[in-house]
Amino acid sequence: MIAVTFALPAESREFLRSLTNKARADRDGIRIIRGKIADRTTEVLHTGVGENVCRTRIGKFLQDQHFDYLISAGFAGALNDELRIGDLLLAENFSTANLSQTRPSTSGSPIHFGKLLTVPALIESGEERKKLALTSRAVAVDMETEFIARACAAQAIPLLSLRVISDTPKELFPAPPDVLFDIQRQQIPVRKLAMYLFVNPHHVPHLIQFGRRIARARKVLADALVNVVRDL
User: Fold this and answer.
1) Is the pTM of the predicted complex or chain greater than 0.90?
2) What does each C-alpha distance from 49 to 23, 97, 182, 199, 223 come to in angstroms?
3) Is residue 206 over pLDDT 60?
4) Where are the domains of the chain?
5) Of 32, 35, 62, residue with least CA distance to 229
6) 163: exposed, middle or buried (C-beta count within 10 Å: 0-12, 13-18, 19+)?
7) Which of 3-7, 34-38, 100-104, 210-214 has the highest average model confidence (pLDDT)?
8) How many other C-beta atoms can be found within 10 angstroms of the C-beta atom of residue 124?
9) What fold does the segment set 2-172+213-231 form as a domain?
10) Which pLDDT belongs to residue 124?
11) Residue 100: what pLDDT?
């Protein structure tokens, strides 16, 4: 059995369409989605964004369970301009599965191998990203994989960290991070976003473009994940 984690349903939507025999279940208060890719039973967990919720959910998810592999998937923000939106990153520093056997077919989307850094908050500034790249030698950031990796190590579960780039130093978020997502509530602050766009209507086209880029990146990730699950 293979586990696949995403932070949010917005990241998993396309992949879930590929599952057959889908069923939803509750495990110790967390929601699980189970289905099949080819003949491989696959369970999907949404860990939430950030350390606190991720550690709680991944701990409950893995308790008393046996998985052959766990794939930590989702979006990541690039720290340099070499990575582009829609590129895939296999994080060498977190992955314990055999990377030579997990080179997914991606319909032409580039696959990069490099260091992924888990950070406590979304990074809004392009300059801050470039500085972080120099100090950490990472090529991209997320907010969950470090905690997933610790949980997998404790259970001796081979981990594959596969992320798709959703934003870069040149193509940043279309609004401040706290306007796009409330980490405490684990949801988009709809009223706050609406007010921001009301005050800054010139940002509406940027938000629409960002949504289209995210949709393309989500499809790239889903296609890659399906191939990885089939090949593992």
Assistant:
1) yes
2) 24, 24, 9, 27, 23
3) yes
4) 2-172+213-231
5) 35
6) buried
7) 3-7
8) 16
9) Rossmann fold (3.40.50)
10) 84
11) 63
